[in-house]
Amino acid sequence: MVDVRPLAMGEQIAHQLRREILTGAVEDGLHLAEDALAARFDVSRGPVRDALRQLEIEGLVENRRKRLYARPLDMEELDELYALRGALEGLAIRLAVERAEPQEWDAVQRVVDRMRTAAETGDGEAFATADMDFHGSFYALARNRRLLEAWKPYHRTFSVLVQMSDTRDLAAATEDHQEFLDVVRTGDVSAAVARLDQHLQSAKGRLRDVLGAA
Fold this sequence. Notes:
2 strands; transcription regulation; TF_FadR/GntR_C; Tscrpt_reg_HTH_GntR
């Protein structure tokens, strides 16, 4: 669910650079010099180094002879990301359906209710946050620490991608998540995983359109 802890400076810088790289505000191949970034964010080089190290792990920064360069996603990498997410989240759903108590799904319903409120007020950022909390709930309810740790690095990337790809029809997107949750709560694992695949393919398609237009 929502992590209310304030982000460390390195994480804040990573979040800003991640958004800029994924949206194309930072050009492909741009040299990301620690000194220049430290001056830009008015910090020492330590938080910048932490941020760049995290982005390198996520594949958004490339190390070439000890110099770091921005590396936006191409379409093939986008397909790889969604394939990996489908595998991880499919397992999370299977375990969550098996292990979660019926009342625990009520908390997930409250996340969908947050999405509905965000849709009614037109708050796209709040909607995107709730969207990630919705999917994150599967990992939490799966009660598998290693699975959760495997998802964490990609959660950061997808938190930006979700904002880029979410449809402007937030009401329809809310109902899509409601129907998704309804399927999960039936306990039919095969139907839930199939619904996940449909959900992710649709999101990936919208994102491909966004990236293609950019």
